[in-house]
Amino acid sequence: QVQLVEAGGGLVQAGDSLRLSCAASGRSFSSYTMGWFRQAPGKEREFVAMITFSWRGGNTDYADSVKGRFTISSDNRKNTVYLQMNSLKPEDTAVYYCALKGSALPGRFDYWGQGTQVTVSS
Fold first, then answer.
1. How far is CA 17 from CA 11, 14, 52, 122, in A?
2. 78-89, pLDDT tens digit by residue?
């Protein structure tokens, strides 16, 4: 059973930085994609960033709203993915979820974490 545990959320001021982490356990994959999503109150969950690994190498992708401010990275030795969030804005306030699928191809994510709250005050 795959488990994803997020950490690193909190309350910060606009312009501050936070680093979220997502530790995966329970199974290993030769190819995989880990992503970060977020859901603000009253809004639908939206894509933030993702990182893929396969025999072709690694790749990252970001939502336009976070490009240049957020960076996704991974430490495969620790089975952990990070989301470095800089220049945070009040509109970044949301519950952030990490997700995992055992493929580098497009498709739905199979495993989800419990979420971590990020609140950015103006």
1. 10, 9, 24, 14
2. 899 999 999 999
Q: Could you count the other beta carbons within 10 Å of the beta carbon of residue 93? A: 18
Find how far residue 88's CA is from the centre of its chain. Answer: 15
Q: Please state, in angstroms and rounded to a whole number, the distance separating the CA atoms of residues 6 and 20.
A: 7
CB contact set of 16 (below 8 Å; sequence gap of 6+): 88, 120
Question: Which two structure tokens, joined as six digits, stand for 68?
Answer: 């240049």
pLDDT tens digit string along 107-119?
A: 899 999 999 999 9
Q: Are the C-beta atoms of 97 and 6 separated by less than 8 Å?
A: yes
With a CB cutoff of 8 Å and minimum separation 6, the contacts of 92 are: 38, 66, 85, 118, 120
In three-state secondary structure terms, 91 is helix
